[in-house]
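Throughout this chapter, every protein is written as a compact record of paired, labelled lines. An example of such a record is reproduced below:
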Amino acid sequence: MQKILIVEDEIQLAFGLKDNLELEGYQVEVANNGLEGYEQLTKSQFDLVLLDVMLPGMSGFEILKRIRQLGNVTPVIMVTAKSDEIDKVLGLELGADDYMTKPFSLRELFARVKAVLRRQSGSPISVTTPVTIGILTVDFANYTANHNGESVAMTPKEIEVLKFLWERKNQTVSRDELLTQVWGYDETISSRTVDNFILKIRQKMEEDSAHPKHIITIHGVGYKLIP
């Protein structure tokens, strides 16, 4: 049974979501403030987190940032009343897998939960052994990377972007293709999201990120990964 953590300070909403997700067959736990949510994520394993942004004690953004720095790759769906693009972009850059804006329907919630869990556990891994790209050795199956035996912190989305490019090495991949296939969005968020991810990946895998040799910009289109 897949296990979900809801971090939400609106108690009625949190337990309403809990009841409905349990009816769908999930095991669900609830944390009603940021500190409690962060503590649960550092002590227990979950298959998915529904993480509110505005929380007492510690914001959802801070929780996400901290768990990713710890190497926790648990899929996260950010939940917030805000709808500004800047908040969506920030959440995605910190390593969120999806983003929902209140109010939302149960149908939308179930669809997004299933989609994120499916992408996490059911997507084909065509690269089954670690590969070397630039100065990094990347294990796509286990979402880890290292340089000279030392672990390199990468968010799940950074790994997925790099994997998508690796599977299409020596081919030009558009920004829209990356947004649609890696994040699973039907809507266009912003090409800046992809550009910012590429910048961070280059800083970790290129010998000189200012003069990249492995992830090349194809101006006006997207990117090409050259092994």
